[in-house]
Structures are given as C-alpha cells and as structure tokens.
UniProtKB/TrEMBL annotation:
Annotated pathway: Cell wall biogenesis; peptidoglycan biosynthesis
Protein name: D-alanine--D-alanine ligase
Catalytic site: E30, S160, S295
Record's cofactor remark: Binds 2 magnesium or manganese ions per subunit.
The EC number(s) this enzyme carries: 6.3.2.4
Family annotation (Pfam families): Dala_Dala_lig_C (PF07478)
Matching Gene3D superfamilies: 3.40.50.20, ATP-grasp fold, A domain (3.30.1490.20), ATP-grasp fold, B domain (3.30.470.20)
Positions of the ATP-grasp domain: 118-317
Underlying gene: ddl
Entry GO CC: cytosol
Amino acid sequence: MSARPLPPPRLADAAGFGRVAVLLGGTGSERAVSLESGRNVLEALRARGVDAQPVDGIAALAEALVARRHDRVFNVLHGQHGGGEDGVVQGLMDALGVPYTGSGVLGSALSMDKIRTKQVWLSLALPTPAYVRLARGGDVHAAARALGLPVIVKPSQEGSSVGVSRVFDDAGLEDAVQLAARYPGELLVERMVVGDELTVGILDTGDGLRALPSIRIVPKGAWYDYDAKYVSDETQYLCPGLDGDDERRIGELALAAFVAAGCSGWGRVDIMRDRNSGDFQLLEVNTAPGMTSHSLVPKAAGQIGIGFQDLCWRVLEQTL
C-alpha cells in the first residue's frame, strides 16, 4: 500500500517557505483540540527553522493576510462555524491568493457534511452504512425502525465524536436527538456497524497521494468517543491495523473515498469493518486531522519512517 519509496523532501532550506501562519483555535466546537494541534505543529516547524507564527481563528487570519504578514498557511483549524474544515477559510485564502495546506473549498465543504459525503460515495458504489437524513423535529423513532436498531445518532456537520450517541433501544432515541440537536445542521441517523474501528491517513508525499498504514483503534470503553480520542491514555492503537490483502483493500478504499470527496493534500478516512461479514464501511473524511499526542495520522506516518517534524514539513510542502 505504501511500498513505493518515499521521495526526498522537495525543499531543503526552510527560508523557502517564507512566513508561515499556523491557523489554530477558532470559535468552533473543536477549539481545544485545534489549539493543541497547532502548538505541536508550530513547535515542529520552528524546530526545523521555519518562520512560523500562530494565528487564532479566521478573523485574525483575514486581518493578517490582508496586511500581507504571511506567505502561506498551515491549517490545523478543526470543525466548522469558526473552524477550518467547512470550506469558508479555504474560500478566503483562495480569494486572497494565499497557498494553504489540505483540501480546497469543495473537498472541505463536502467532507464536513456527512450526509452529502455519503450521497457521493453511494453514487459511486462505495460502501457506507445505511442512513436516514433527519430534519429537526423529524420522527427519530420512524428512522430507527427503517434502519433497525442499534443506530448512531449524530450531527451531520461535526467532528471529534461531538454530539454522537450510540442507541440500542427505542427509549434512548429522544436523548440522543437532544444531544445532537445542540449543534448546527441536520441530524444523521445511521445503522450501527459492530466491529473493528479503523482509520487510514492519506498523505501527498510529493509523488502523489498514498494511503498510510491503517490503524485499528481499541478503546478501553465501549467505543471511540471524545474521551478515548483526546483524554484517555488507555486507548490502544494497532498499526498496521490489518494484514495482507485486507490491508491493501482498506488502503485502496480509503484513497477512493478521499478522491471521490474532492479532497487533496492530506487527511484521514474513518472506516468500520463489520465483525460478521468482514466488509468495510466508510464513515467520514477528516480534512484537517488532529496533530495532538493522541492523533492518528502522525502515528501512521511514523510507521513508514516519517517523524512528526518531517510530517509537518511534507504537509507544508504541499503549499509550494
């Protein structure tokens, strides 16, 4: 899957990047995670001699770019509505002609909307769990009956497991809707896939996109929720998560899903493997993945010899 040799970095001298804004924080629901990601990226770039400065949120970035204080942007602003994964900040940077890391407007906006991403995947016969699009005030009990319990109830436009509930009986549906409805956008009711939780990082290493080794996530609790992602030190990450042909297939599927969603540069595709059938099911694409101590793209990159500083450098090279 990642067997071809890594090309050398395209740039040898950090001065070639000019002045780099590390976009972090913001006003979205994932602000705390983004701040930690940004601190780590900032430290890594500076350690390699890059002239990198933190910029907190879209308004501050707009002011800085209009004043021409930065030449390019490393985006680790997570989420939407003040986050950096919904296409808004990408549109701003495109309008100002400033290069940036990660996906453009289309890939960012589409991937942030789980319902429309699933529609694209299904149109291309890519596997994703059956779902019902639930308008606010819609009948969640009817949706659950149509899919069959257990189901996942979640906001259609949030990340980091924010607002997500696993529901095993009819009595839990109303509470799940109340939690998900705290966040903007439509709600998504999705058939729960019971099995292995997997993720595949995608990285453009200068010679095209490649799938990084998969990671199988084994949380201590029942599932990979916010605490397991960002707080607990007891979550296990097995990399590579699969062997042989299964590892090849999941890499190919992740790449196809990433490209289908209009994404570019780098990202992460979350996938479930059904315990009974062994089939893979696509869940979502993250276009500005976490770069915290618990984050998964750095773990996968490390498996093919790309350390954290080198990963940050290679992602930033995508702006050249």
